[in-house]
Amino acid sequence: MDHQIFLDANVLFSAAYRHAAGLRRLWTLSGARLITSVYAVEEARRNLNNPGQRSDLEELLGSVEVVPTASPKDHPLLSALELPAKDQPTVLAAIGVGGYTPAYW
């Protein structure tokens, strides 16, 4: 059974920040489809100051599907959740790929 795992900027940042991060195990899961959004990638890049960490992020992204924000901002799920505005683009992208297991919830 394949699983879709949507990675937010915090997961990407943490995995790139240090090699020993436990989150890196996500990249070794059999049958896992790792997905993130353009918004999450840019946020992680912006917060990584070390060139080596940014390089690690790019390497990790090589096996991650990067999707745009695809759902409308008036999606019913957003009205049911109380999310800060900065988190909404990532949730919208996850909704856009359909059926996901967010790695940050």
Question: What is the fold's blueprint, element by element?
Answer:
Blueprint: E1 3-6, H1 9-17, E2 32-37, H2 38-47, H3 51-61, E3 65-67, H4 76-80, H5 88-97, E4 101-102
Parallel strand pairs: 1-2, 1-4, 2-3
CATH superfamily: 5'-nuclease
Number of helices: 5
Structural class: alpha/beta
Task: Report the major sheet.
Answer: 4 strands, parallel
CATH architecture: 3-Layer(aba) Sandwich
Query: What strand line-up does the widest sheet have?
Result: 3-2-1-4
Find the CATH topology: Rossmann fold
Rg estimate, integer Å: 14 Å
Count of spatially separate domains: 1
At the first level of CATH, what is the class? Answer: Alpha Beta
Which geometry do the CA atoms define?
A: globular
Order of helices and strands: EHEHHEHHE
Beta-strand segment tally: 4
The level of helicity is 40-55%
Average pLDDT across residues? 82
Fold and architecture overview:
The chain has 105 residues and is an alpha/beta fold. The chain has one domain (3-102): 5'-nuclease (Rossmann fold). Helices cover 43% and strands 14% of the residues. The chain contains five helices and four strands; from the N terminus they run βαβααβααβ. Helix 1 (9-17) crosses helix 2 and helix 1 (9-17) crosses helix 3. The two termini are 21 Å apart. The mean pLDDT is 82.
